[in-house]
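Hey,
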Amino acid sequence: MNINFNVYHCKFDDRSNMLSKSSAGVVKCQKDFPIFAFNGKQYLFKPLSMTKPYGTFLFAYSEVFWSNIIKNYFCPNAPLYYLATCEGYSRYYPSRSDKGTLTESITTENERLVNLLEYFNAYTQEGVDIGDYVNYCGVYYDYTDILNAPIFNNDDRFGEQLALQILISILKMDINYHYENVSFIFTKDGIRSLAPPFDHEYSIPFLFPDDDMLSFNYFGTYCQTLMTNKDINNGMNSEFILKNIITICKKYPNLVKTFLAGLKRLIDDLSKTDLVFPIEFSEAFSSHLFEIYEAIYKEHETSQKLSDIRKFSLSFIDMANFSDAVRQSVIQSATILYRNLEMNLDAQKLVRKEG
C-alpha cells in the first residue's frame, strides 16, 4: 500500500481562481478555496480551520489516508488529497491556516455541486425532512429516509452510489458525515451523478490524540455498537449506524457483497503494511486549541470569552507510534464492520427466504 505523503507548496498569489461556498444549514459557515492549475488540471487548496472543533494538523493526514483507501478499494473515481501549504492564505483568512490539503476538482467548468440539504430544500420529497438539521460534529446521522426518497428509491444508480458512500463513512468512523457532505453533480441538463466521496477530516482514529478518555469513548462506542448490533445510547446517535446498515443490506445486498470484498482486501493489506506518517507536517497541538481561536474570531453565537476557557497545554506527537496506532485501530474496526455487515446481510437473506 503506497500513499503519497509528500508536502506540496503553493502561493496564494499564484491562484488561478477562487471557489466560495456558504453552508445551507442552521450552522452558517463561509468557505473560500483558492484554485491552482497543475498539469492541465484544477486543484483546490483546502485549509485547516483554526476554529473547527477538535481540529489539529492530523485532519490533513486523515484526508490523505482515507482518500487513498477509498480510491484504491472502493471508489476508483474518488479524488486524492495531498498534504499542502498555501503561503499567504492566512493573511486574507486569519482564522484559517496556511497548512491543509490539495485535491483535484470533481467538477468541470459547466458543472456545479448541490448537496443533499440544498437539493431537498429545493425539491421537497415525501418522507424527507432535514431542513432544520444542525451540522454538529461528534454524532452520526440517519440516512434511512433519504435512501427511501424517490430520487434514490426510483433510481438504483443514485441509490447505490449513496449507499456506498454511507458504508465508506462508517468505515472511516466519520462522526461528522452530515447532509452537506454528500452532493449531486448538476449540469444544465440536470443531475449527472452523485459526486464521489470527499471531506475525510472527522475520522475517529485521527481525533483526540491527546485526550485518551474522548478517544476511548468514541472508538469504544463504535466497536461496541457494531459488535452487539445494539444502540449504546450515549449521545452519539450510534443507533443510526445500525439503521443505515440494515437499510443498505435490505435494499442493496449485491453492493454490500462488493463492499465486503474491498474491505477484506483492505484488512489483508493493512495487516502487511508499515504505515508511517511523515513528521514534516506535524506541529505542537491540542484538541482544544480551537476554543482559543473561536474566542478570538467569534465565528459563532456560542463563542466563549477567553477568560472562560479552561487551561490546557500543547503537545507533540510521536508520529511512528501514532501511525501504528492508526493502522491497528483501522484493522480492528474494519474487521468488526466486516462481521457486522456479514451478519446483517445473512439476516436479510433469511427474511427474504421466509417472505
